[in-house]
Every structure is written in C-alpha cells, then in structure tokens.
Design brief:
single chain; two-stranded antiparallel sheet; elongated; DUF7144 domain-containing protein; transmembrane helix
C-alpha cells in the first residue's frame, strides 16, 4: 500500500516558504501605500507638511508620479513573488531599496508614513533574502 508522500511542492522538488508568501503580500501592501502616496501628492499638495512644495529636488507632482509608478510596479512584483517567480524576488529587493531611499528623501513631507514604509521595506528585503534557495511562495 502506497502512502502519500506529502504536499505537492515536496513531490515536485521545490520547497514552499512562508517568508515568500509574507514577502509577496508585504510587497503588495507597500505598493498600495506608494500608490496612495502618489495620488495624494498629485491631487492634494496641501496634505503634506512641507509648505514650499519642494522636497530635495522635485516638487509634489514629480514625487506623485514617482510613487504612483513605483507602487504599480511593486504590486505586480508582489503578485510575482506569491506566484513563486525568481525574477520577482530579485526585482522586489531592488524596488524595496528604491522605495526606502525615496521615503528617506520624502521624510520631511510625511515623517510617520515614511518611517513606517521604510521599516516595511527593510522587512520585505529580509523576507525576500532569508528563504532557502529554490523555495517558492
């Protein structure tokens, strides 16, 4: 009598990782936050703390487009991570670093939101780099 050898992922030789599922979900959440940041920067400049509409080099309109495009890409990458795509893991690390640096520059405009997003980006980078090699979400 044959016994079931375990979950389908084990039978196909790939290990599943809860960290990658968490990372994919977190990438979608960070992407959604960045989309919200972008839409607010585009449609309501008075929402942010900086009064002269200048943060580092760009104005709120430029930052709005940056956050909007970055958020859309991060949502797509998050879906790829959950689907177990290796390209999405590498791309997710790159865009998490880019978002953390961007929020560091955006810190003066909205400090609490930026600090929260930077912390989530660091957690996302860890979740994407910690799982065993070859594991899927």
């Amino acid at each position: 009598m044959a016994h079931d050898s375990g979950p389908a992922a084990v039978r196909h030789g790939q290990r599943t990782s809860g960290w990658l599922t968490f990372a994919g979900t977190l990438a979608v959440v960070i992407g959604a936050f960045n989309i919200i940041d972008g839409l607010v920067a585009l449609f309501n400049d008075d929402y942010y703390l900086v009064g002269d509409n200048r943060i580092m080099v760009f104005d709120f309109t430029a930052w709005g487009w940056f956050w909007l495009f970055l958020g859309i890409i991060q949502v797509a990458v998050g879906a790829g991570i959950v689907a177990g795509k290796m390209w999405a893991r590498a791309t997710g690390v790159f865009f998490a670093v880019l978002a953390a640096i961007g929020h560091l520059a955006f810190l003066q405009a909205f400090p609490l939101w930026s600090v929260l997003t930077i912390a989530m980006c660091v957690l996302l980078i860890y979740a994407l780099t910690a799982p065993p090699a070859g594991s899927r979400g």
